[in-house]
Amino acid sequence: MKFYDLITVNSNLTYYYIYNDELKIVRASFSKKIVEGLKREENPHFNEIFKTYFFKRKPLSEIEYILPDTLTDFEKSVLEETKKIKFGKTATYKEIAERIKRPKACRAVGNALGKNPLPVIIPCHRIVSSTGPGGFTGGIWIKKFLLKLES
DNA sequence: GGTCAGATATAGC
DNA sequence: GCTATATCTGACC
Hints:
The chain is an alpha/beta fold. It has helices at residues 44-56, 73-83, 93-99, 106-114, 140-150, and strands at residues 2-10, 13-20, 25-29, 39-40, 91-92, 127-128.
């Protein structure tokens, strides 16, 4: 059984997350679409963690989550490296590519991050292009908002 | 400013 | 199944 809950960040930004009965996050998004058909079950534990991040601007606590097993090793590596980026820091697509021994696979890195099932928890917004802000699924303004939040 | 490289997914044949 | 095309890019021409 899966449930979801949400955090209202501001008037036009809401963070939705889905968790299972083992209290592990399985999916998150800034779009309402991923939670359609699911039952909302408020969860004080996760709620508190996300509130601390969004409103007190503190690093996200360790959160238990499950990555879909449909991800390839390459994608898992990308997400793992991304997760190592500290609060307030940024990295480039190239740096991630180099860390997973694929220095020329920077474009593939972008692709993997674009499919990131757990935005914020896996801080894909901290990955920027060397030529500009890069992109962000759902809107670049969300990325800018998150970076500003951490600055 | 165009092109190609790298991993993957999806669409079309 | 294979080819073409599209991605949150970067390097080299």
